[in-house]
Amino acid sequence: MLWPDLLEITLRSLLISLGATVIASAIAMPFGAWLALSRFRNRRWVIAILNALMGIPPVAVGLIVYLSLSRSGPFGVLGLLFTPTAMVIAQVIIITPLIASLTHQICRELWFEYHDLLISLKTGKWHRARILLRDARRGLITAALAGFGRAIGEVGAVMIVGGNIDHATRVLTTAISLETSKGNLWFAVSLGGILIVLSVIVSLTVHGLGKTERGGRW
C-alpha cells in the first residue's frame, strides 16, 4: 500500500466518522435533553431501551442497513449500498443511542440544579432544553467524542455495508482487517497507530475549539 493510498484511507475514515458524529449528535442531543425534562407514561421503559441500544451489536446494524439498501430492500432504488453514505448511515444508527443516553444523564443532573429557577421563569420545554444543552456543552463534547471513538473504530457494520472497496469505501479499520488477513502484521499495526493518533488529534481539536477549560461548566 502506497502512502497516497494511506492518506486517502485516513481522510475517508475521518470524514465518514465525523459526518456520522455530527448527524447523530444533531439527533441525539435534543432528544436526550427532551427526555431529561419530560415526564410521561412508560418513560422508564424508553430510558431502559435507549440504554440497551447502547450495546447494540454493530454487525446486526450492518445487516439491517444492508437489507434495507440492497436491491430487494425498501431503499434499494437509492443505490446507496457499498458507498460512504451507507457507512455513515450504519455509524449513525450505532452511535445515536450512546450520545442520546449520555446527553440524558448530563442534562438530568443539570435539570435538578436548574429546576426551580426555570420553573419560576415560566420557560417553555424547548427553551429549557436549549439552556441545558448550552450549559452542558462540555459534557456534551465528551459525549460526542465517545460517539466518534466508537464510530471510527467500527469494522463489522462498515465492512458489510461498505464492502471495503479500494479507493471507494476502504477505511482504516477495514484496511487493518485486510492487511492482517494478508499477513502484513507490521503494516496493520502501523494503521492501528494512525487510528489511535487520529482519535487523539480530533479529541484535542474539539477540546480547543470548545474552550472546555474556560467555557465549560464543569
Could you walk me through the main structural features you see in this protein, from its secondary elements to its overall organization?
By secondary structure, the chain is mostly helical. It has a single domain (3-215), classed as MetI-like fold (Orthogonal Bundle), CATH 1.10.3720. 78% of the residues lie in helices and 0% in strands. It contains ten helices and no strands. Helix 2 packs antiparallel against helix 4 (84-120). The model has no long low-confidence stretch (mean pLDDT 86).
Please write out the topology.
Blueprint: H1 3-37, H2 43-53, H3 58-69, H4 84-120, H5 125-135, H6 137-152, H7 156-162, H8 172-181, H9 185-210, H10 212-215
Short description:
By secondary structure, the protein is an all-alpha fold. The protein has ten helices and no strands. Helix 1 packs parallel to helix 4 (84-120), helix 4 runs antiparallel to helix 6 (137-152) and helix 4 (84-120) packs across helix 7 (156-162).
Largest sheet entry = none
Report the β-strand fraction as a percent range.
under 5%
Helix and strand content put the structural class at mainly alpha
CATH architecture: Orthogonal Bundle
Poorly predicted ranges:
none
**C-alpha geometry:** globular
Query: Taking all residues together, what is the mean pLDDT?
Result: 86
Task: Give the C-alpha Rg.
Answer: 19 Å
**Helix share, percent:** over 70%
Q: What fold name stands as the CATH topology? A: MetI-like fold
**Count the helices. How many?**
10
Distance between the termini: 45 Å
Overall strand count: 0
Q: CATH superfamily membership, which one?
A: MetI-like
Q: What count of structural domains? A: 1
CATH class: Mainly Alpha
H/E series: HHHHHHHHHH
